[in-house]
Amino acid sequence: MTNTSQFGFFNEDLTVSSSGVVHAVANATAGIGGLTRFDGVRWTGFNIYNYGLGEDWPFPSDNSHRVYVRPSNSQLIVNPTFGGLFAKSSTEWTDLEVGNDTVEDMLEDSQGRLWVAYPGNLAYYSKGNWVSVSDIGGKRIRLDPFKKGKVWVMSDSAIIGTNGVTSQVWRIEDFPELDPNSDQFKGMVVGMDGNIWIGANTINLPDHSSLIKLDPNRKTYRIYRYADGWRFPSQYIAPVAATRDGRIWFQYDSDFGIDDSGLAWFDGRKVRKFPAPFEGQMQWGGLPHAGIIDVEQRQTVDGYQLWTSCASRGIVVLNPKYATRRTKE
Questions:
Q1: What is the pLDDT of residues 161-210, one digit of tens each?
Q2: Strand, coil or helix: what is 128?
Q3: Is the pLDDT of residue 329 over 60?
Q4: Distance, C-alpha 65 to centroid of its chain
Q5: Is 78 in contact with 88 (CB distance < 8 Å)?
Q6: From CA 232, how far away is CA 119, in angstroms rounded?
Q7: Contact 23/15 with Cβ under 8 angstroms?
C-alpha cells in the first residue's frame, strides 16, 4: 500500500504541476507516511516503507501539512507536519529556514518568487532570504492574473493585494454589511477578469453569510446573499476555485440539522450544485463528503478537471465538461 497507492484518506493539501503530476500529503498509519505522487498512471509513496519503489521521507513526522510544485523549475516544496519548509533536489532536501513550524499556504508569483503565509507573517523568498511583507499573515495565496509579481492573500480578517512593495488591504470593517465582532473571511479566489471573490460568514448566523465580488481596480464591490434571495444551495459559501470558463466554484454548507452541503459553481447568473451525501453516508459516485479541504485544477486536452480533497474520503476528481453533458442527456 505504501508504494503503490494513495495510502491516505485525509489528504489535506494537493498540488498539480504544469505537466499534470499530482502531489498530495498522506498518512498511512502511525509512524508511516509523508507524501504521495500520481503521474497519471501510478502512485509513488514518500515514506519509510516504500520498499525501494518510492522515495525516502527523512523527516520525523508521518505526514505533511502543505505541498507545492514551483512552476518555474518543477521543484517540490514541502511543509512536513510541524517541521518547517524544505525544497527537494534530485538527491537531497534543503531547509529553507522559513522561521515557523507550519506554513498555511505557498505560491510562486509571475516573477519566480516563492511566497508563504502563516499567522503573523506574509513573506517571499529572494536570493536565499525571506523578505517579510506583512504581519497580518494569511491562510490562502492566489496569483493576480494581470499584474506581474502581484499576489492576493486572505487571512481571517483581511484581504491583501501586494507585489512586495506596495499593498492594498481590505478588512472586515471595510464592508459595512459584515460584522467585525463575529464575521471572518472564508475562502478566496481570483477570477480570470481580476475580480476577487470572497466568502464571509459567522457559523450559526446564516443571515450574515456573504459572497463578495471585489473589483480592486475600481475599489468597488458587490455582495450576494442567500438571505437576499440568491439561489445558492445553502447559507454558507466559501470560494475554492476560479476556472477559465468564468465559473466560481465554492463549497456550500448549512447550519446543524439542515445538512445541505457540497460543491457548486456560480457564473454570476446560474448555480449548479454537486451535493454531498446526507449525513456523510458512504456512497460510490458523486462527491463523497462535504468536508472539502482543498481543490486544485488539472488542465486536460478538452478542458480541465477539479481534484478535490474530501475529509476522511480521500480524493475525488470532477470533469465539469462531462458532468454538464451528462445532466443534459
A1: 999 999 999 999 999 999 999 999 999 999 999 999 999 999 888 887 99
A2: coil
A3: no
A4: 12
A5: yes
A6: 31
A7: yes
- Alpha carbons within 13 angstroms on the beta-carbon side of residue 60 total 4
Nearest-angstrom CA–CA distance, 115 and 112: 9
What integer pLDDT is reported at residue 325 of this predicted model? 47
Round to whole Å and give the CA distance between 43 and 65: 19
Closest listed residue to residue 230, CA positions, set 196, 269, 276, 179: 269
Q: How far apart are CA 215 and CA 190, in angstroms?
A: 10
Task: Give the pLDDT band (50/70/90) at residue 322.
Answer: low
Q: Which three cell numbers stand for residue 57?
A: 521521507
With H, G, I as helix, E, B as strand and everything else as coil, classify residue 320.
helix
Task: State the pTM of this model.
Answer: 0.94
- Cβ proximity of 142 and 156 under 8 Å: no
Ramachandran bin of 323, using left for φ above 0, alpha for ψ from -120 to 50, beta for the remaining angles? alpha
Grid coordinates in use for 80? 512536513
Name 294's Cβ contacts closer than 8 Å, sequence gap at least 6: 11, 12, 13, 14, 240, 308, 309
Question: How many Å apart are CA 12 and CA 150, to the nearest integer?
Answer: 26
CA distances from residue 301 to 19, 182, 277, 298 in whole angstroms, order as listed: 12, 44, 31, 10
121-143 in b/e burial notation, b at 16+ Cβ within 10 A? bbbbbeeeebeebbebbbbbbbb
Q: In terms of C-beta distances under 8 Å and separation of at least 24 residues, what long-range contacts does 71-76 make, across chains too?
A: 71/17, 71/18, 71/108, 72/108, 72/112, 74/17, 74/18, 74/19, 76/23
Q: Which of 142, 141, 123, 140 is nearest to 132 (CA)?
A: 123
Confidence of residue 43 (pLDDT cuts 50, 70, 90): very high
Q: Look-up: residue for cell 488539472?
A: 298
Beta carbons of 197 and 181 less than 8 angstroms apart: no
**Cell triple for residue 264?**
457548486
Q: Which residue, among 4, 42, 41, 47, has the nearest Cα to 25 in the 3D structure?
A: 47
In DSSP terms, 37 is beta-bridged to 23, 44
Q: Please count the other Cβ atoms lying within 10 Å of the Cβ belonging to residue 208.
A: 19
Q: CA 147 to CA 144: how far, in whole Å?
A: 6
